[in-house]
Amino acid sequence: HRKRDMHKIATSGSTGEPFVTYADRYQLEVRFATTLRAMEWTGWRFGDKQARLWHQTIGMSKTQVMRERIDAFFMRRLFVPAFEISPQTLTEFVDEIRGWDPVLVDGYAESLNFLASYLKEGEVAGFSPSAVMSSAQVLPDQVRIAIENGLDTRVFDKYGSREFSGIAYQCEASHDHHVMDESYLVEILVEGRPAQPGEVGEVVITDLNNYCMPFIRYRVGDLAVAMDPNEVCSCGRGLPRIGDIEGRVQAIIVGANGTYVPGTFFAHLIKDYHHVVRHFQILQEKAGAVRFLVVRGPRYSEGAFEEIVDLIREYLGRNTDIQVEYVEEIPLGRTGKRHHSISKIGMDFQQLSQDLGVRTKDQIDM
Fold first, then answer.
1. Contact (Cβ atoms closer than 8 angstroms) between residue 104 and residue 129
2. Is the distance from CB of 241 to CB of 184 less than 8 angstroms?
3. Which pLDDT does position 119 carry in this prediction?
4. Buried-state track 107-139, b at ≥16 Cβ within 10 A, e below 16
5. Which span out of 74-88, 121-135, 350-364 was modeled with the highest average pLDDT?
């Protein structure tokens, strides 16, 4: 490969460590084509306006920044910097998006949720695109509902990573994810074997098009629900599918009782206490102990908050050391994400997928 055809991509990697990968021009062209196809599943058509809540140009070279801006111009794409969203900038961003009047809005799930909640709870005159595409983070049902209610439209989820871009997308017929099998071979494994339909396993990906830096059976650090390969989606598309993305491995919290609990579960657990806790984050540096960062809600009370702590202990174990820290704000990260949980302890991926396969099914469906 000629160096001029290789494009550098910086990522946190599947383990959270800084990682640099490369993609060749052909692979990037195929990525673009499959992305356009998935965007059209939402009702958007080539040439329609779009708005993107994204990190914009963070981590890009000057050449990449220029290409991104040229691409945005011809794609009629408005960029809204997700990492700059705050109470001070919200009005400006809403006015900008409303004036642009996009058919499709896409971006980080948490950023979209933040914006939709602001419009809904603040009764602010907003905008209503034909569709929203959420990406970069797991999309819990309550977040999907909040975005759909706030923006009065349908949400489509994109599953991807910096190493591969879009891996699988939801269609208009279901919440399952269609794999872009022209580009990727996606396996869901439990202890090295293919997961059975309905079973939670580790996501392992082989890139079929990137010849300058091949990824073969790459463990991306995610867990997903396997689906029957012989069952076709009601939309009629023959692409293979995967089910719910249960959680990022680096966002799993280990309780004193030895259980693994995904960060998305805490969002599910606390969703009925939004008047008590506006934002939260659970940080873990050793098993059996967590820091619980809390932004108080509008109707906070000690009694209601103790109920939340007691519920957390119920799932993490009564002996779990929970250190509560009240803060004014839990900021979005550099790339516009706010994580419900951050773990700095190592994980056994295969054991985790086995343990979580049972626990997640019982807990999330409550």
1. yes
2. no
3. 78
4. bbbbbbbbbbbbbbeeeeebbebebbbbbbbbb
5. 121-135
Where does CATH 3.30.300.30 sit in the chain? Answer: 249-364
Task: State how far the Cα of 325 lies from the Cα of 327, in Å rounded to an integer.
Answer: 6
Give pLDDT tens digits for 25-39. 889 899 999 999 999
Backbone torsions φ then ψ of 298, nearest 5 degrees: -65, -25
- Tens digits of per-residue pLDDT, 57-79? 554 567 767 877 888 888 899 98
User: Do 228 and 338 touch, CB atoms closer than 8 A?
Assistant: no
Query: Three-class SS of residue 282?
Result: strand
Instruction: Domain 3-174: give its CATH superfamily.
Output: ANL, N-terminal domain (3.40.50.12780)
What are the residue ranges of CATH 3.40.50.12780 in the chain? 3-174
> Is the model more confident about 336 or about 291?
291
The single-letter code of the amino acid at 112 is: L
Supply the CATH classification number for the domain 249-364: 3.30.300.30
Q: What does pTM read for this prediction?
A: 0.67
